[in-house]
Branched-chain amino acid transporter permease subunit LivH (Thalassospira alkalitolerans), 307 residues
Amino acid sequence: MDWAYFLQQLINGLTLGAIYGLIAIGYTMVYGIIGMINFAHGEIYMLGAFHSLITFLICQAAGISGILPLTLLLMLVVSMVLTSVYGWGVERIAYRPLRGSFRLAALISAIGMSIFLQNFVQIAQGARVKPMQPLIEGGIVLMESANFDVLLSYMQMIIIVLTFVLMVVFSTLIAKTSLGRAQRACEQDRTMAGLLGVNVDRTISTTFVMGAALAAVAGMMVTLYYGVIDFYIGFLAGVKAFTAAVLGGIGSLPGAMLGGLLIGLIEAFWSGYLTIEYKDVATFGILVLVLIFRPWGLLGKPEVEKV
């Protein structure tokens, strides 16, 4: 066994899994508070990628792209702010008017919003892929072998570290703050939470905004890491992030991150050792097994209905 090759695939899988985990946290936060899946979340991630690219092009036109820290900061802030506005809009347009309706209505509305956002970006930005020059290059050679060197790039370090920092921050936010208490109260019983003084509408909107901000970070990381995006990247990434949320336990933030890491590792090792054409089959096949034998996920808890 070539351990250098194994280590390289491990690094690649953790990087990809961290991106899936960031998107999956948005899915699991929304499901935890309203009990529904936001199927437009993948397109929110795609919008974050486009916002970061457009911000970079504006910085380049303004002549400040050479100041890398300032450019990255502007890309991050602008992408998070604009994408959060879209997340807030999705909640106001696609979910809030249907909150008292039957569950299928909100699901159909979310799918319609996903298709709308896809086609909106396709019309506004064109169907061709959008490349971007690499901004962060270089890395650390961890191991040398006869075949190749194991490289941990600076971009991979940033993605992995930033993902875990954000997960810790958001977990602490939900566990320790008044907003987190309001979110957990709405998750248990929205009607009772409203009677006790919790602003349910504002809490739900804030949750959508938080999930969209995380998706914007993931979109920016993908733009910097791969250097190419298009209007369709949100669909497959969104489905895989949803798979990660279910795999780890829908409603659990650590579970969403664990599911994302597992899916990233499965894809990396399957592509590296078997065949890349069937990596998605492996991912969704494992999801089917988990749903059969542990439907509440790896870190989730089975729901007990009291009568």
User: Anything to note?
Assistant: The first strand starts at residue 130 and ends at 131.
